[in-house]
Amino acid sequence: xxxRLRQIHIDGRTFTWRTALHYVQVNGFxxxxxxxxxxxxxxxxxQKLEADLLSAPGPYVVDNGYPTPxxxxxxxxxxxxxxxxxxxxxxxxxxxxxxxxxxFTVPGxxxxxxxxxxxxxxxxxxxxxxxx
Length: 132
Fold this sequence. Notes:
Blueprint: E1 6-10, E2 13-26, E3 29-39, E4 48-55, H1 69-81, E5 92-95, H2 97-100, E6 109-112, H3 123-131
Parallel strand pairs: 4-5
Antiparallel strand pairs: 1-2, 2-3, 3-4, 4-6
């Protein structure tokens, strides 16, 4: 199945984006993992933004909806503020918890280092360390 590409307009600029939903198990509990990918007006020839999100820590996954444009908008804005250059040709800019987690604020989600099923770190540990 092909991923559906969508467009969003932010401050007079057009971005193309797609997301994929997965679930990852962390310490016996499931979290929704959302892989967000975005490109500038140059489409897939422009520098790609990658962000892997985990649903906020909790004992069960209670949501299974598709990420909203508001959540994607917040990811793109964080990427832009963190140095993502969508007009640059090629390459990838990764938003990671390690480097950008302190400035990332999307309600209900934590920014994660690249998430792969069965390899996830415990996001509750990261959140406690960030607030601590």
